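ok trying again, last paste got cut off:
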Amino acid sequence: MIVLIEMALITPPVGLNLYVVQGARNSGRISEVMLGAIPYVFAMLLMAAALIAFPQIALMLPDALQ
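nice, full thing came through this time. structure:
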């Protein structure tokens, strides 16, 4: 769920983190920030798909500690 929430924070039109990055920049357009976030969105989609397909990935460390 955290991965999907973070993905929502970097996707337009309401991507709060995009506006934070744009505010930290001194120049440029927000569309450049949006284009820069696209690879991260795809990576998070792949990670979410992997976690759905193989939930053992997220459960490996807690199982190892038992």
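cool. The two ends are 24 Å apart (CA to CA). The mean pLDDT is 90.
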